[in-house]
Each structure stands twice: as structure tokens, then as C-alpha cells.
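Hi W.,

Here's what went into the run:
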Amino acid sequence: MARLALMPMLLAGAAMAAPPDATRQDELRHLVRQDCGSCHGLRRTGGLGRPITPEALAEREPGDLAEVILDGLPGTAMPGWRPLLTEDEARWIADYLMKTETE
Amino acid sequence: MLKAVLAALMLTITPAQADELRGTGDLGLIVERETGSLLVVDRSERAALGRIEGLGDLSHASLVYSPDERFAYVFGRDGGLTKVDILTRQVVRRVVQAGNSIGGAISDDGQLIAVANYEPGGVRVFDAETLELVADVPMGSKTVGIADAPGSRFIVATWDTGEVWIIDHSHSPAQPGITRLKGIGANPYDALLTSDGRRYIVGLFGEKGLTQIDLWQDPPEVTRFLPDYGRDQPDMPVYKMPHLQGWTLADGVFALPAVGLHQLLWVDADSLTEIARTELAGQPVFALARPDRREVWVNFAPPDNDKLQVVNTLTHEVLDTLTPGKGVLHMEFAPRGREVWLSVRDENRVEIRDTRSREVLGEIEARAPSGIFFTDRAHRTGL
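Here's what came out:
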């Protein structure tokens, strides 16, 4: 319920602000590969964290994923990345994870 | 740039001189995590000798050495167990033994290789010569912190179920005796065995505190300690799990990286009580004693992973803050501590520093380097 309530805010945020520029996108791709990769694997096939390949995330909502990225999952090892990422950047990562295959 | 390309090319194509007599005591391997390769390095020359390729997904890879320091067993994320010959620089054998692995260990007689797996959760044990399966020990949980205990034993903790299992191969390698210790604590994330093989210390992620297993007692004695550690302070997010291998027993004192706090924790090894804390520049990942134990060197999780700090073992004060570069993932000391090798992942290089003057002595190009492993590890318990 709390998640549903947050959704309109996230969507509104995404509509107002610009997506990360090309330089920042490179940094975010690097962060996904290396830092998310610490737990989810370089190829996102899972480790301590669950798999986060496009197939594994097929049923998820990008707004919901962005929220998990920002605030983490209490009771698990997934930290909140809000101190390091804006909401637009988290949403960009969510979209990236859902549509981009690893090499 | 051209020079770099040529150097890289030469590394790949220069054939290994297998018949050339040489020792392996000053050699090492550096994991290149992006490319699934290992760089063979010579400590004395401060140079790369060549590269071994085809090892699969090496994110979070580690390795152990055979007793003769010629072969290494490499544990890959993709469940691959690969035996490589560092003299001929070739893959000798490779099996994909599970879906997802986290690390492994070699028995004290050099006969058995144990691999800790996430998927399927448990430990599989292989013949060191042939890599044939000797024993399969399912545990119904992701496994962490595997180590070799004296007497053909392995010890491992379980992330999901909070247990420690001791697997004893001394009577029958294929039918090991199992000792299962329950109620160790919520979500062990890593563990370490002291070099005397006595104390197995388990770090907990799911609750505060730590657990010690005393393997000198029969049955092994379980002690919780520092039960309130960190509770009085707001925890910060943990962007990378600390590593406990190399947690330090220096001068009767453990130096432990805190989880979720920017601190190094000093604990008296006998009483298991805290004696001091050191404020650090970030969330510590590795806290390693220089081999003479006089200093503890610490690296950090993102976003502070460009730094290192050096801490005085006696005074617990930070002596130096170094900034080798972006993505300092690992440190490995020369066996007697004169120099330290640092992998600087995002700058594709390994930096070599004098451990006393802190001066840069050399640099080796490597592709996204992570773990550095010198062959002297072959003769150390608990790595």
C-alpha cells in the first residue's frame, strides 16, 4: 500500500526532471556492473542478491524497482542507494536493468 | 596506448617456458574479473609474466594454492572450479560444479578442494588431482566463509539458516563426519578462521554481534560476543559486505571491520570484549594486518573505495590516508611485509607500494583487477 502511494510521486518526479546525461549514464552503467555486481553478479545472474536480469525482472514495475533501489529492502542485504542516487537516476537504472541484457 | 596494446598482446602470445627451471615462491595470481582471466605475476621482478584465460565469470572470485605452489584452484561466481598451472600458464582442468559459488578451500593435506555454493546451497568436495566429486554436502542454504581447519576438516557458515557446519574428512573422504552447530545468529555474511585453526569467528548481518566457535574444545564451544555492538548508533547502508578473511589477530587483539559503521573495532581475543574503536574514512571492507602485525591496512566500500587507511596496532590511531585511485578492491602483502600490492580496478592497474615509506615502487597493467593472491598462501591455515 505504501508503495502504491509513492508511485504517483515517482512518476511526477520523472516527468519533471531530465534523465541523466550521457556522462552520468556511463557512470550509472559502471555502478550497476561493479557495485550492484558485488552481490548480484557481474552478469546479474545473482549471488547473495537475487538475479536481476531482464528475464528475472520481467514481472516487475520499473517504478517499484526504482523504489527498492532508493530505499533498499529491510530485512535483507539490499541497501538503500538514496544517498548516492537521485530518483531520476534510480528510475533510469530500473529501466536499464529491465531492458538491457548483460554481455 | 600502442605500447599498452603491444604489451597486452605479448602477454597473451608469449609461450610459457615449462622446462625452464624456476621456483614459484615469489609468484602470484591476479584475478581480472571482467575478462575471466588471471595475470601471473612475479613479485621479485614486479612484473606480469603472462595471462591464463577462459575461467568464466570471475566476479567475486578467489583461489587457493596446491602445497607445491605450482597449481591454483580458482572458484568462480558461475560455479566453475578451475585448476591452473602457473608455470605453464594453462588451464589443467575445469568443471562447472554448481550454479553459483562464493569461495573454497583446500584441505591441510592438499588432497581435497571444498567449494561453498549459493546454488544449490551447500558444499561440494573434490579430489585435488582430478577434480572428481568426492562428497556432496547439501545444506539448504547459501554458504559463506568456508575455511580449512586442521585434520582434513572444512568449516562453513550458512546465510539463510544461521548455522556452522564442520565437515571432517579425516576418517573417510567420501563419507565425512558432520558437526552441525545451530543458533549461530541471523544471516552470517562471512567468517574467518585464525591461523592456528582454533577460533572461527562469524560476522552477522541480520543481527548485531559476532559469534566465536572454539575448535579446540570438544564439542566446539559457541560464544556470542559484542551483543550490543552498533545498536546505539544509526547504521549506514552497507554498499559492500566486509570481508573477514584477513581479519586480524595482532598482538592478542582482533581488528574487525564494522558492518554499517565507519569504524574499525578492536577486540581483546581472550575476553572477547571491545577495547577501542577507530573512526575511519568509510565502510571498511578488508582490514588486514601487515605481516609484522604492527599496522592494519583498511580499504573501503563505495563511494570511498579510492582510499586506504593505515592504522597503528598499538595506539589504534590512523597513521596515513592514501588515495591510490578509483576502485581499490584488494590488498596483498609480500609474505614478510616489505611491500603491498593494490588492485585499482577502475584504472586497470595494480600498484605496488613500500609498506613503510608508502612510496609507489611499481605498477602493473591489469584488466579490472580484483583479488591478488601470492603463493605463500599455500602454507597458511584458514585462507
